[in-house]
Amino acid sequence: MKPAVRKTVARPAALTGVGLHSGATVRLNILPCEAGVGVRFVRTDLPGRPEVRLGDVSREAPPFRSVLKRGEAEVHTVEHLLAACHVLGLTDAAVEIDGPEVPGMDGSALPFAQALLHAGLKELSGAGVEPLCVSKPLSAGRGEARIEAAPDAGGLAIRYALHYPDAPLAQGVRELRIDAATFLEEIAPARTFCMKREAEALRAAGFGKGANTQNTVVVDGDRAVDTALRFPDEPVRHKILDLIGDLYLLGRPVKGTFRAERSGHALNRELLLALAEAGKD
Fold this sequence. Notes:
Blueprint: E1 7-9, E2 13-18, E3 25-31, E4 39-43, E5 51-53, E6 67-70, E7 73-76, H1 79-88, E8 93-97, H2 110-119, E9 121-123, E10 132-133, E11 138-142, E12 145-150, E13 156-163, E14 171-177, H3 180-187, E15 192-195, H4 196-204, E16 216-220, E17 223-224, H5 234-247, E18 254-261, H6 265-278
Parallel strand pairs: 4-8, 10-18, 13-18, 15-16
Antiparallel strand pairs: 1-9, 2-3, 3-8, 4-5, 6-7, 11-12, 12-18, 13-14, 16-17
Helix pairs in contact: 1-2, 1-5, 5-6
């Protein structure tokens, strides 16, 4: 498949917000870089400003998020930002961050996409970046959760089936071929979610300290608590958003058809790492 054109931001983009899990205020700056650098996170709050790069995927990441880790430096909850980078084609940038978690903003990928579009993306000269193409069917599963990948000459397509028992709002199927317009209109605005019965348990376990009913859709049966839904099936759309972001953890655009049922970050990463290994053959 033809290499993707490398792109960086034309101007710096800045965002400030609270980490969904840490509850800490975080400042994030996306800065232009030369071709070939890739997307790298710079922990400005740590001695020596250590870098964490796409590809530094933590296999032991906590539930409900994806994490990049190199040495003692970590960056948590990268998936919403990476979803925007993936679809808009940002391949090279320095992401300066003064904390361990990407700010949650409104719980979706839209603020990140808007920041990138406002900054502008410019093409970089030189060799492009080879997409990670699915060359043969692969799958990963655990219990009732499963995710499959198959070749697709047309680009990236995702079908997600969500099913939480006794929660009609967190059930349904959505299938889309992903491009920039579809992502911005149909997927990027969808916020993260959790079940009402799980919310207190998550906080007790140290998660969700920055979550509220505006940046997280709290599902109570067939309704959302204290918020108006952006889409009737907002939870399943957010699962597609997470998968798009997780697929970019290795720093290359991904081409293939993905079918997922009840999968989350752990299975997404398992399949992605298997795809990367298969690409070495």
